[in-house]
Amino acid sequence: MRITEIGIRVIANPHGEMVTAGIKGGRAAHDIVFIEIKTDAGIVGHSFAWGGRSGQATAHLIASIIRPLLIDKDPLDRELLWQEVRRMDRWWGFLPIYAHGPIDVALWDIGAKAAGLPLYRFLGAYRSKLPAYASSLILPTTEDFVEQAKAYRRAGYRAYKIHPWGDPGRDIEACRALRAELGSDMVLMSDPVAGYTQQQALKVGRELERLDFYWLEEPLSDYDIYGYQELSRALEIPIAGVESTPGGLFGTTQYLTQRAVDIVRSDVSWKGGVTGLMKTAALCEAFGVNCEVHTTTNALLDLANLHVSCAIRNCEYFEVLIPQEPFSFGVKNPIRVDAEGFVHVPQGAGLGAEIDFDLLENNAICTV
Ligand SMILES: [Mg+2]
After folding, report:
1. Could you tell me the distance, in angstroms and rounded to a whole number, from the CA of residue 302 to the centre of ligand 1?
2. Burial status of residue 165 (CB atoms within 10 A of its CB: 0-12, 13-18, 19 or more)
3. How far is the CA of 95 from the centre of ligand 1 (A)?
4. Is the domain of 98 the same as that of 193?
5. Residue-range definition of the domain harbouring residue 75
6. What is the whole-number distance in angstroms between the Cα of residue 24 and the centre of ligand 1?
7. Ligand 1 centre and the CA of 250: distance in Å?
8. Is 168 a domain residue?
9. Ligand 1 center to 262 CA (angstroms)
10. Do residue 130 and residue 222 come from a single domain?
11. How many distinct structural domains can be found in the chain?
């Protein structure tokens, strides 16, 4: 099989304003980059790339650096192509990992479709469902978080993660209210997105231990390995981190060998695709650490995340950003949570996505 064409289209997510308002630092762009890898066998692999701060910038990086490397290559040589892209980055400079991951995802989509299997079975299935947690955006008030968590519990979720403001006093107040209002049977986590100093993280962490929170995620900047090491030693509550560190798989080793985190956060966007995420999960497994799969904020990459989550053992929960609409844009079969709080992996070949091509076309900005 040969790759004949790689289509790269920048799509405006009409829910972009909402996404930007609810995510710390407005880190998500309004854009999604839609990737179509065509082959001479007629099999087409699909993926979305995260737009970063500019979908067009991401699209041009993929088009100018990665596309020439892949044309006319065998799409089934995934490991070779993964190593080639990483090697090129090391020598020629600073290709963002979120530009590489989606290409690898589309190649896995092709491979699984060629085998006639859903991706998680192509990888080697461990399960076909896992529990989900509802993952909030940043909401205006404590009451908003409490009402949202209650509503999602009524819908079936058994776990809820708050993205609080990063203000220790207000964050503790919101976490206390969540525990008081939801009772002891709801699993709760908190992710202040690098909002604290080391002293603040220690203070909040101690309170979250009293409130029986399940984990404290990214309390410090992911770069602060020393701070994470101190915090993980001082606190009983598991500390989760490493979702966006440079180096992807290779950057994760420092956090594991120095016992800087108890839980590694990883996804197909920031760890270099399905290949990079599977490698990271295996690395974590060897250290006895869970690799909790982290949302990518877009529908096709989150589907790839779900397939990997069902092909590894050391991931306990699947993250679903809520409300789901902005993050499931572009597919007709968004990930759904059942009445027991589980997500089920699609059984179609490849990613199993029903892509809404008309919707993407209607929101297209440009082709690169
Ligand atoms: Mg996080």
Report:
1. 14
2. middle
3. 22
4. no
5. 3-116+356-367
6. 10
7. 19
8. yes
9. 14
10. yes
11. 2
Q: What is the CB-side half-sphere exposure of residue 211 using CA atoms within 13 A? A: 28
Q: pLDDT tens-digit profile of 136-163?
A: 999 999 999 999 999 999 999 999 999 9
Compute, in angstroms, the gap from residue 305 CA to the centroid of ligand 1: 15
Distance between CA 321 and CA 197 in Å, rounded? Answer: 26
Residues 97 and 193 in one domain: no
Task: Tally the C-alpha atoms within 13 A of residue 200's C-alpha that lie toward its C-beta.
Answer: 16
CATH of the domain at 297: 3.20.20.120
CA of 117 from ligand 1 middle (Å) equals 31
Q: Are residues 205 and 144 part of one domain?
A: yes
Q: How far does residue 154's CA lie from ligand 1's centre (Å)?
A: 24
- Count of Cβ atoms closer than 10 Å to residue 214 Cβ: 21
72 located within any domain: yes
Q: Calculate the CA 32 to chain-centre distance.
A: 15
* Distance separating the N- and C-terminal Cα atoms of the chain: 24
Q: What is the pTM of this model?
A: 0.96
Calculate how far, in angstroms, residue 120's C-alpha sits from the geometric centre of ligand 1. 24
Separation CA 75–CA 6 (nearest Å): 11
CA of 150 to the centre of ligand 1 (A): 21
**CATH number, position 48:** 3.30.390.10
Distance 240 CA to ligand 1 centre (A): 8
In a domain, 349, yes or no: no
**Rounded mean pLDDT of the chain?**
94
- How many Cβ atoms from other residues are within 10 Å of residue 368's Cβ? 18
pLDDT tens, position by position, 81-96: 999 998 877 665 578 8
Does 351 map to a domain?
no
What would the pLDDT profile of 26-49 be if each residue is shown by its tens digit?
A: 555 578 999 999 999 999 999 999
Q: Looking at the structure, tell me whether residues 78 and 148 fall in a common domain.
A: no
C-alpha 366 – ligand 1 centre gap (Å): 31
Distance 349 CA to ligand 1 centre (A): 30
The answer on 199 and 70 residing in a single domain is no
Same domain flag for 76 and 188 = no
Centre of ligand 1 to C-alpha 43, Å, is 35
What's the pLDDT band for 23 if we cut at 50, 70, 90?
Answer: confident
- Ligand 1 center from residue 337 Cα (angstroms): 20
* 187 and 283 together in one domain: yes
The sign of the torsion formed by the CA atoms of 330, 148, 189, 183 equals negative
